[in-house]
Design a protein that fits this description.
Length: 131
C-alpha cells in the first residue's frame, strides 16, 4: 500500500512502522488515519495501540478509524487471490468508544454503513479527538 501511495502521491512522505511503537516524539502529530488496520490486532493488543496513538497525538489531535462491525473473528484464506491467511477482528462502535476513552480519546462522530456488494458485514468509521 505504501508503494501505491508513493506512486500516486510522490510529493508526500511515507514510512512503514508498527502501530505498537510509532517512531515519533510524544505529541508530535496532529492526526492519525488507521483505516482497516486495527481489525488485524488481537483484542488484547488494542489498548496498547490506542495508548501509542494517544502518545504521539498532540492534545486536540484527531484519530480516524475504519473497521468491520461484529463480534466474531474471521479467518480469510487467500484474500483477493493472494497466498496468505488473514485474521479480521470485528468490533462494535460502542465498545470501541469505551476503549478509546480509556486511552484518552473522545469519540466525536461515528458512522455505521450497511454492507456493499461483496461485503458480508456492516462497516464503521469513528472520529475521535485526543483529550
Amino acid at each position: 500500500m505504501v508503494a501505491v501511495a508513493r506512486e500516486k502521491f510522490p510529493e508526500l512522505s511515507y514510512e512503514v512502522g508498527s502501530m505498537t511503537a510509532l517512531d515519533r516524539p510524544e505529541g508530535s502529530l496532529a492526526g492519525i488515519l488507521a483505516f482497516y488496520s486495527i481489525i488485524h490486532l488481537p483484542p488484547q493488543r488494542r489498548p496498547e495501540v490506542f495508548a501509542e496513538f494517544r502518545r504521539v497525538l498532540g492534545a486536540g489531535g484527531w484519530l480516524l478509524l475504519g473497521f468491520q462491525v461484529g463480534e466474531e473473528p474471521v479467518l480469510v484464506e487467500r484474500p483477493l487471490g493472494h497466498g496468505v491467511s488473514v485474521d479480521f477482528q470485528r468490533l462494535h462502535p460502542e465498545r470501541l468508544a469505551e476503549s478509546l476513552a480509556d486511552a484518552g480519546f473522545e469519540v466525536r462522530a461515528s458512522l455505521v454503513r450497511e454492507p456493499e456488494e461483496g461485503e458480508r458485514t456492516q462497516h464503521a468509521h469513528a472520529l475521535a479527538r485526543a483529550r
